[in-house]
Description:
By secondary structure, this protein is α+β, with helices and mostly antiparallel strands. Among the domains are: 73-97 and 309-546, 2-enoyl-CoA Hydratase, Chain A, domain 1, CATH 3.90.226; 204-303, no CATH class. It has helices at residues 36-44, 73-85, 92-99, 123-140, 150-166, 172-183, 254-257, 344-356, 377-386, 402-410, 422-428, 465-472, 537-546; strands at 2-7, 57-62, 193-194, 197-198, 204-208, 211-213, 218-220, 224-227, 230-233, 240-245, 248-249, 258-262, 268-276, 286-291, 296-303, 317-322, 325-330, 362-366, 395-398, 431-434, 438-441, 453-458, 479-483, 496-499, 506-509, 512-515, 531-532. A 7-stranded antiparallel beta sheet has the order 11-10-14-15-5-13-12. Strands 16-17-18-22-23-27 form a 6-stranded mixed beta sheet, with helices on both faces. A hairpin with a 4-residue loop joins strand 14 and strand 15. The longest helix has 18 residues, at 123-140.
Amino acid sequence: MKLLVLILLGIVVLSACGGASTNQEPYPTYNTSATHEQVDEEIAEPQHVQVNIPEVETTYVEVELAPVETLDLQGVLRIAQARREAIIRPSADEFVAGLLGREMRHMDMPFFPEPIVEVAITLENAIYDVQLFFELLQNIYGGYDYFGGDDVFLPILDYVIEQLEQTKDLRTVTIANILFEALNPVIHDNHFSINNRALGISYQFVVITPIFDPATSSFKSPVFERSVNGFRNRDTGLYVTALMWGDEPISMGLDEALRLSLDANGEFYYSFVYVQPPRVQTGLQILTIVYDNGDVSNHATRIINTLEPMWKDGPLKSLTIREGIPVVTAFQMGFPESATNPNAIYAQNFLDYATQLRDEPVIIIDLRTNGGGNGLLPTMFLYRLLDEIIPQNYFRISNSPYEVLVRGLQSDTSQNWSHISYETFRKYSTFAPVGDYHTIFSAPHRMVSNDNLFILLVDRRSASAAEAFADLMFSLDNALVIGQNTAGVLHTDLTYGRFLPNTRIHFGFGRSMFVHPQGHLPEGIGITPDIWVNGDALVATIALLNS
Length: 547
């Protein structure tokens, strides 16, 4: 940016002033107590003064903007490494101490395989089912103590029974709705469901809607870059001073709302990404960007569509080569040891791909739209690549007594769709008893060195076990997570599902509670990628590697 500096080489003599004295005011003064009418009158009738300006010599002085940060692959890897080193892993000691003070009992109930035809249900049977349901919560649900324990749930049980007593026509749907509405304000767990309605929360991610640019025949959004002075618009050089919804500043700081991003050409920049709870009103939101010179620009925004899956048809797992780079795609974390699961072969293939790619300098693992499944499969995959067990950044507590858990693993469950052998469980996880009723899964954390480059692609539909894979990437050197935030479905697991005996209400929840580093994997928000991509993350990543 260049500033024109005028250097006056003569003395400008104002014909209306004669010889101005040295103590004369150089600028006009204004009556600050004047009324609006007086000021308008003064402005309406200005005094015109003839000014004779002599010829002047001009020179140009170039003033450089503050340099932007260097954004290349190595620089971004350094940023990612610093992020990993800053993670504060949680300690299990305080959490475990709270569990040891509560009496529990190991319990289960028969699995009723299908719902019954909708019929009227007696009050006695409805109350029996509800009391049984809360007893199962108390003794099996991994999040029971986290979400308040007896102090919270026992009053809810009383409230539900009151609602049942006041309802004349008790049917399955009615009772399920009463349960759901009573628990929904308390339980924020995307794995927990009642009649297939999740009690969790999914935040919305808002980005700027691109507009068509006739000059380039493409759709464009504002592109920002970063210097020591802050974020500035790449096209204008103006610095961003505020981001507004109407007259109100957004609830995120600039460092949070302007994310390191990657475009389809493999170039780094910063883009606007705003996180908000689900809104009742889903109308158009206009973002106002305020710049340091007072200029503003208004932009329509859109909520990222998380309902449309990326994958329609094709194998659950595949290995392809894109411009010389191996890409492993997985849409499910399957169970390779199951004798009856028809998708077991795809999980076996997934592990075989890791063995084949051990010597590849760059590997892309595409888990977009992967809804999860087997939580051990990510650890097994990386072990095939590195010959090391990569530790998670979280620990989990299971409401399964250690002896009961081991006995179940040692029994023959190979005919189950979700079968994992005891040998596999023991090899790839570290677990120990906690008191009489719990088992803890935890291993000392360490960063694992790695010379090859691992890139994991994720999006808002990458959930549960896929997020466990994303978490492992934060224990690895030379690893990047690229795409969009994951789904945020790892407060608990999903290991217990039944139909209540009388009402046949179906419910599902987890025995285990996952405790993550603060801000690392919030429920409904998920893991934030190292690099955000608004378009196709695979296309952008391939372009980055080829550049």
